[in-house]
């Protein structure tokens, strides 16, 4: 009986983890209205974001710290994106922070999904 319970718990944990990662990938689909893989749109391209932060852990730490405008490396380097910071702050609150708070995904999972682009 213990063996069955351990297997059930392990399956649940793996299923939950897989669901969480898929949700983060789904979120990046919503981000495509403003971001593209290698071309700037309303926001910077994923390639530009990757180059600015270097790795997913660094980007995740910016998300975790509240995504302050001063911490946004691309906006700091390019004034056209700094002007759009208010829009991105709203998107961060609605699409990222709120969903992390609901346990849909973690900041790390989202950053890894962005770096996988």
From the structure above, extract its key features:
mainly alpha; 70% helix; 0% strand; 7 helices; globular; 117 residues; single chain
Care to describe what's here?
This protein is an all-alpha fold and 117 residues long. The chain is built from seven helices and no strands. The chain has one domain (2-115). The longest helix has 30 residues, at 2-31.
| Model regions low in confidence, pLDDT < 50 over at least 5 residues | 2-19
Count of the separate structural domains = 1
Helix count from the secondary structure assignment? 7
Oligomer: single chain
Report a brief summary of the structure:
The protein has helices at 2-31, 46-53, 56-64, 73-77, 79-82, 85-101, 107-115.
Topology:
Layout: H1 2-31, H2 46-53, H3 56-64, H4 73-77, H5 79-82, H6 85-101, H7 107-115
Helix pairs in contact: 1-7, 3-7
């Amino acid at each position: 009986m213990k063996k069955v319970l351990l297997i059930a718990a392990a399956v649940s944990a793996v299923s939950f983890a897989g669901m969480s990662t898929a949700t983060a990938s789904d979120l990046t689909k919503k981000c495509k209205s403003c971001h593209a893989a290698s071309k700037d749109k309303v926001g910077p391209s994923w390639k530009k974001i990757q180059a600015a932060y270097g790795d997913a852990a660094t980007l995740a730490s910016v998300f975790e710290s509240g995504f302050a405008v001063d911490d946004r490396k691309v906006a700091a380097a390019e004034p056209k994106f700094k002007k759009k910071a208010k829009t991105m702050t709203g998107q961060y609150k609605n699409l990222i922070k709120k969903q992390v708070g609901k346990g849909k995904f973690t900041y790390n999972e989202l950053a890894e999904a962005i770096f996988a682009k």
